[in-house]
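User: I'm preparing a small set of examples for a lab meeting where we compare how different chains pack in three dimensions. I only have the primary sequence for this one, and I'd like the structure in token form so I can line it up with the others. Please keep the answer compact; I'll paste it straight into my notes.
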Amino acid sequence: MNIAVRKYSENDIVQMLRVWNEVVEDGIAFPQTDCLDEKSGAEFFASQTYCGVAENTENGEILGLYILHPNNIGRCGHISNASYAVSTSARGNGIGERLVRDCLEQARLCGFKILQFNAVVRTNTAARGLYEKLGFIQLGTIEKGFLMKDGNYEDICPYYRAL
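Assistant: Understood. Below is the structure token output for the 163-residue chain.
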């Protein structure tokens, strides 16, 4: 499998929705509860500062994606935020790491000074391990900050990294 991370195009939206909505429906990592349709998805992705996709260049399949945007406004507008989604069928192949590394570079190019994750679910050990490997610092723990799909609350761990 040959993977390239690149800026998304409108032609990618249907496949991006498949990956994004899979994570939303899992209900264990993203705060969103509603899936995106083609119209809302196109608007959502277009509203981001940058969206990157991980494409299998052998067959054109989108295996993962990320969104990058400001975490706040004004005097805190230099802090960015991002979310990552990797298709269940493609996990374990280093795609998440490639997406995060590309996002770090794009955030710098967009003028951000910090990348912050507000709500990494404590039980998302794969993501937390990756972030720590890449130099992100955990800021603490917010007890019961995330409503899991099963109705239980899980802790969240904010992270940040200077760019």
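A couple of notes for your slides: Helices lie at 13-26, 38-46, 95-109, 125-133. The first strand starts at residue 3 and ends at 7.

User: Perfect, thanks.
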